[in-house]
Amino acid sequence: MSTQNLTNTPAVHNRRGIKEQLTGIPRRRQLIALISPASLWLFFLLILPLATLVMLSFVKTAFGEGSTVLTLEHYRAFLQNTIYQRLLWRSLGIALLVTVLTLLFSYPVAYFMAYFAGERQNLLLTILIIPAWTSFLLRVLAWRLILGSNGLLNTFLMGIGIIQEPITGLFFSTPAVIITLVYIWIPFAVLPIYVSLQRIEGNLFEASADLGARPWQTFWKVIFPLSLPGILAAFLFVFIPTVGEYVTPALVGGPNGLMIGNIIWDQFSRGLDWPMGATLSLMMMLIVIVPLFLSSGLAERLGLTGGGDE
Amino acid sequence: MVKNIIELENISKVYREKSGEVVQALQPANLTIEEGEFFTLLGPSGCGKTTALRLMAGFIQPSSGEIKIQGKSMNQVPPYRRPVNMVFQDYALFPHLNVEQNVAFGLKVKRVGKQEIDERVLKALEIVQLSGYEQRKPRQLSGGQKQRVALARALVNRPAVLLLDEPLGALDLKLRRAMQLELKTLQQKVGITFVYVTHDQEEALTMSDRIAVMNQGRILQVDSPMNIYEKPTTRFVADFVGETNFLTAKINQIVPGEVVKVAFGDKEVDVRHRTNGVHRGDTVTVAIRPEKLTLMPPNNQYEALPAVVSEVTFLGTDTRYIVDIPGGEKAAVRIQNTGFHRLPAYQVGDTVTLGYDKDDAQILSD
Fold it and tell me: Taking CA B243 as the corner, what is the angle to CA B237 and CA B244, rounded to the nearest 5 degrees?
């Protein structure tokens, strides 16, 4: 052992030395060269736009004279104007509700596909994804045909005589926004849950049953905890884009179904108040980042990240 | 009095493939396993040994027949209500639970009191020598340690029978040898019936009280390790367990209960009569292990087979000779390099006499 160590240490040292001699580039510069593509990517696609947004939120106006005047008035406006805050909380609430509903609907689908679909797994997977290939707008508008005053639902209900007149509140409302978003997100939530369920080793179910666990105990003690990474991924996939959603509320929400995304969109387009839009964007981002950090901490605590099974 | 703890009555398992092909994983078989014994199902992969084990655990349902554990029929009993526990081939530890939680799993789902769980888990980890590893996650353990956790997780439930599906298969040779002895000692200590599945004949011989040798869905022989080795009843068993010479001979005469006179070419020798269903004039296979043969100088006073040495290999502890025997076949002979047998005792081309005890030769029925 000791002789091995004596000969090994200089050998390792030498190898590094030889490598440097061969390439002729000092180690420091090698490292810089290696990380530069990633850093460039990060700089142009993440840091630059974000910095622009932050800068924009501190100037008086986006154009003309005001663009050189630094001010905190937009942040003050955000804090004083309860409409903004209410809208932000409302958006968070809607996003949370949409996410929870989506997960509730997606989990059984993923469960069925992972364990009961057998050879039809691939077919079902394709069917699930096909709607995602059609235009987002089309899928949103399709709900107009279902929920609208002369839509399928009203026609059906009137046809079987349950109601005499069309229900008008169905469309252009917050429920319509929620229904549409849940529908849109289901395929995206099913996939990560499906993958995490499929990755669970089959013999764990047997081990659980063998140790005396009834099927429902196996679900809550083995299957569910092991599918948490998928649930977490699905949660973030759905929650984060939903908070800032503005197309769906604009199309199916009507005046009562507005979300913070619509106001931000208004600031940038009709209102031409880019600094206010930037401030609202940053506030929204700040609030969305919190669950992101919480969830990564949670994943670590559950021992779900890194390492895998081995 | 010896009690049967597991009884398989006419049990069989048939699988229907997608192509419509029918696979007979287990031919109708009867098997009884006694309380407190270390019973091994031995055979090559695909022989049905794992199928038999999974039938006992309840993961699969038999196509016919009945399984009884402790005298009760288990056919309609789901795995979670059977008084057996299994140690899986790749351990099947729950990756999201630590060692302590893994071991406590079975007790928790059965709603055992918290204090009792703690005590029994502590004790189980002590038995498998893993005290102090309670908080580790399975991925932080070595193969041998995972093996011990799997063992503790099963034993803590105090099953009537512990089923082990090639539990040492994934370990390296040295660790495997150590674990073999440990398992055997453990089994004697806890007194639980072990049903052990393996394809490793050495493992089976080392650990078992009784062995069932299986091939192609059939149970060929159930016996003690010594009898499996010394008195194999079929060619497959003789071949699968250890090395064996299979020599073709013709039966000249049968003295019931005494000897069978068999002829190799024009030379006649005696073999102990043990096998039924053979008749005068039959061509049969005589099985004899290489270490049961010996070489002697020619023309001695013993009545034995003359042979010519055709190959000599020095193997360290012993020397292996290949000799030509009358009738044109070759036999392997293994002789220990003791003080009585100095090298080179015989060389290629030497004429020798092949000696053996007539009790050591076995006439095979197939």
Answer: 70
